[in-house]
Task: structure prediction
Amino acid sequence: MKVEQDLEDIKDRLTQIEAKLEQRSNSGRILKTMFIIFLSVFFLLLVIGVIQFVSNSSV
Result:
């Protein structure tokens, strides 16, 4: 009886740990996606600025 209870406790703990790891994985994925989007917008605006600068200086 004691062994079965211990096994159930271990299974519950393992389930909790897996849930926490999955949650961390999702938050890290979201942060990485936000960072990539930010860099993409920054470089897009940088390229637009350079194009405008070059086109205005040649006239």
About this structure: Residues 1-58 form one domain. The chain is about 95% helix and 0% strand.
